[in-house]
Amino acid sequence: MTTTLPTRAQALELYRALLRSARQFSNYNFRNYVARRATDAFRANQTLSDSAARAAAYANGLAELGVARRQGAIDAMYRSERLVVEKTSRPSGYNVYRE
């Protein structure tokens, strides 16, 4: 059985797709986890020289992309409130006056 090696463009497209799928999550923790996991995996596999290992890493990345997309779809169905650390707007009436 022969496996075709992914090109650099295909690997970069997979990386971008993983980062895009991370942005689907409304929860700060899940969003950062998916992005961090993708970045860590790509950095760890950056120096692979064995063609079989590179093909396996690419296949694993495609599987992870599928998982991230499915979880993102589930997250979209059951959105929760944003975390306190994510709120950027100030409540009304919160004005600081300095003299």
TrEMBL record:
Species classification: Eukaryota, Fungi, Fungi incertae sedis, Chytridiomycota, Chytridiomycota incertae sedis
Organism, as annotated: Physocladia obscura
Domain of life: Eukaryota
Coiled coil location: none
Domain Complex 1 LYR protein: 10-65
Family matches, as InterPro entries: Complex1_LYR_dom, Complex1_LYR_LYRM4, ISC_assembly_LYR
GO cellular component: L-cysteine desulfurase complex; mitochondrion
UniProt-listed GO biological process terms: iron-sulfur cluster assembly
The name this protein goes by in its record: Complex 1 LYR protein domain-containing protein
Pfam families membership: Complex1_LYR
Annotated family: Belongs to the complex I LYR family.
